[in-house]
Amino acid sequence: MSLQACNCVLTSKNDYIPACSQEDVLQTAFCSCMVTGMDRHTTAHEEQIRQGATLRTIRELRGLSANDLALELNISRPYLVNIEAGRKKLNPILVARIAAALEVPQIALVREGYFDREDAERRAEIRRLERQIENLQACLDQALTDGHRLRDELDAALAATKGVA
C-alpha cells in the first residue's frame, strides 16, 4: 500500500491528529506527513517525556496551574500531571484540546523545535502585566469610590454641624 502525504500530526504510527479525512487515513493505514515526530535515535518513551515537558513548560508560561488546565480540559489533575511527567501518552483528541486551551499550534506540543519559548515567555509577561494593570485599576477604582464616600460623609457631618450651631 502506498502512503500519501497529508497534514496530520503524528506522535507514532498509531497516534495521529487528523487533519485529513478519516477515509484517507484508512486508505493509507497511517498518515505519512510527519511519520513519528521522532528522530531515529529517540525512543517512544523519551519522546513522550519530551512532549510532557513541553506541555508543562507551555502551561506554566501561560500562568496556569495543572488544576486550572485539567478543569478546562475536563480531565483529572493527576491524569494531566502523569502526561506532563511522561507516564501517560497524549492522544490526538487531547492534543487538539490542549493546543486550543493553551493557544499554541498542535505541532508545538508533539514535535521538537516548533515551540518558540522566547515568544511564549514574552506573551506570558504581557499577560502578567495586563493582569497587574487590571488589579491596579481595580484598586484605583475602589480608592476613588472610598474617597467619594468619605467626602459625602464629611459634607454631611459639616452640614449637621452648621445646623446645630
Structure keywords:
165 residues, mainly alpha, 7 helices, 2 strands, elongated, disordered N terminus
What is the CA-atom radius of gyration, in angstroms? 26 Å
Give me the secondary-structure category: mainly alpha
- Uncertain parts: 1-40
Q: Biggest sheet: strands side by side, in what order?
A: 1-2
In DSSP terms (H or I, runs of 4 or more residues), the helix count works out at: 7
The termini sit apart by: 103 Å
Instruction: Let me know the average pLDDT.
Output: 78
Helix content class: 55-70%
- The H-and-E topology, N to C, reads as EEHHHHHHH
Q: What characteristic shape results from the CA principal axes?
A: elongated
Oligomer: single chain
Strand content: under 5%
Total number of β-strand segments?
A: 2
Main β-sheet description = 2 strands, antiparallel
Write the layout of secondary structure elements.
Layout: E1 9-10, E2 16-17, H1 22-28, H2 44-61, H3 66-73, H4 77-84, H5 92-102, H6 106-110, H7 117-164
Antiparallel strand pairs: 1-2
Helix pairs in contact: 2-4, 3-4
Molecular structure report:
The protein has helices at residues 22-28, 44-61, 66-73, 77-84, 92-102, 106-110, 117-164; strands spanning 9-10, 16-17. The chain has seven helices and two strands, in the order ββααααααα. The protein has 165 residues and is mostly helical. The model is unreliable at 1-40 (pLDDT under 50). Helix 2 (44-61) packs across helix 4. It has a two-stranded antiparallel ribbon with strand order 1-2. The protein starts with 8 loop residues before the first strand and ends with a helix. It is elongated. A hairpin with a 5-residue loop joins strand 1 (9-10) and strand 2 (16-17). Helix content is 64%, strand content 2%.
